[in-house]
Amino acid sequence: MVKGNEAYLSGKEKVMLEKQPYEYSAYGATFKLSHDIAPASAALGAGGCADCHRKDAPFFTQLYMAEPFGEDGKIQWLPAYKVLNFSEEALKEQTQER
Prior knowledge:
- By secondary structure, this protein is of the alpha+beta class.
- The chain has a domain at 48-98.
- It has three helices and five strands, in the order βββαββαα.
- The strands form two sheets. Strands 1-2-3 form a three-stranded antiparallel sheet, with no helix packed on it. A two-stranded antiparallel ribbon has the order 4-5.
- It is elongated, with a radius of gyration of 17 Å.
- The termini are far apart.
- The mean pLDDT is 76.
């Protein structure tokens, strides 16, 4: 089982896998953010900056898996702004009406 860069060989033995600082796992970046490859009319941002940068935009508030399992064995979810290391203040700045 692999959790981030920890590979568990047994219930008591694990090894640390090499990864890049921006990657959650050695198997590649889990939290990739881009404007995607899609027809221009369907791409993020096609409707303007407010597609993502508005108070109710799910881009910053949707939940992402932070850990596949925590101490209690359950998936740990975080809103996107926390995964991106944004503070509450930074979130307000990103999503304020212009």
